[in-house]
Amino acid sequence: MFLVTFHSGNVRAYSDDGCEKSKAVLSPEPQDAELRALRLFLDGSLWVANGSKAQSAILGYSGSGSSYSGGAPIVEYPAAEALWHPFDFTFSPDGSLCYVSNQDTNVVARFVVGPGGKSMTPADVAPALHGTFLHGTFVASSCKNLCKVRPTTAVDEQHGGLGVTCDAKPPDCCKPTHSVRGVLWTNGALYVADEPGNAVRVYGDDGTYLGSGTVPTPVHLLEAFGHLYATGTGGIFISNLVPGSPASLSFPAAPSIQLENASGMTIGPNNWLYVATRKPTGAQIVVFPHPEAVGAEPKPFPVHADPEFVLYVPG
Questions:
Q1: What is the distance between the alpha carbons of residues 294 and 287, in angstroms, rounded to a whole number?
Q2: Predicted confidence band of residue 196 (pLDDT cuts 50, 70, 90)
Q3: All residues at 6 or more sequence positions from 67 whose CB lies less than 8 Å from its CB, including other chains
Q4: CA distances to 22, 140, 268, 289, 304 from 18, in Å
Q5: Residues 6+ away with beta carbon under 8 Å from 158
Q6: What is the DSSP letter of 146?
Q7: What does the alpha-carbon distance between residue 37 and residue 207 come to, in Å, rounded to a whole number?
Q8: Which residues is 122 bridged to in the sheet?
Q9: Mean pLDDT, range 140-167, rounded to an integer
Q10: Cis peptide before 243 (omega within 30 of 0)
């Protein structure tokens, strides 16, 4: 079963062979839904990021297959000041920590997961950061003057600060047009897609900046079979992951897989790579082989307009 979020509206479900099973997976549908990342927590509950300006939150649902209910906020803005327009999130290996990328604050915030995964609270600012930062900041912005955000210490991109592109209209502050995107904890480190910085940046468990790999406008990240996959301009860029050396990235100059408008990725049945194409018309889930893929090549299938993230779940 594939669960897919879209630029707006509810999560939709598609069977393994591409048939639409549900147009409304979540009950109730989140307020002003602009859903982005979705992941299963350790207990099987479904966590979903709502990037809406009306309700920036990580929401929790219980259920299975194509039906989930609940929607209680696990953490939300403005109680968590860094959590504004969340895009992606990832868990530490034991599920005790959650790292969330936020487009309007342009930071990755770290949260401590409460008992049973029902709540989260901002962790301390990363030990590697020195200055004034939003509560819970783990990776900081290179801009200290974002619109409607408390002023913070800017961290230069050379030292791991996240790039940001600003709208030209506000004369006295930066309104982000492009900012931080995907996050992924794997290989003993946090990997962050810095879209305007054209880099996948890597951070240690105390927030120390370890280095980066070059990818043009990276957005989505996925680990599979010892490789790191990043969507970027023209397709998907693939690097080996070196155990014990998380910043040793070797992305090619050109896409490893050519695919315009690539967005969310997931490993589906028989270890095939399923990738959504983010288009207003003609959007689909396309399929590519992995070294571990088996069986006959699955067929691509159409999906609703502007897919964002895709997650394969039992069902």
A1: 13
A2: very high
A3: 22, 25, 27
A4: 12, 40, 12, 17, 12
A5: none
A6: B
A7: 22
A8: 111
A9: 97
A10: no
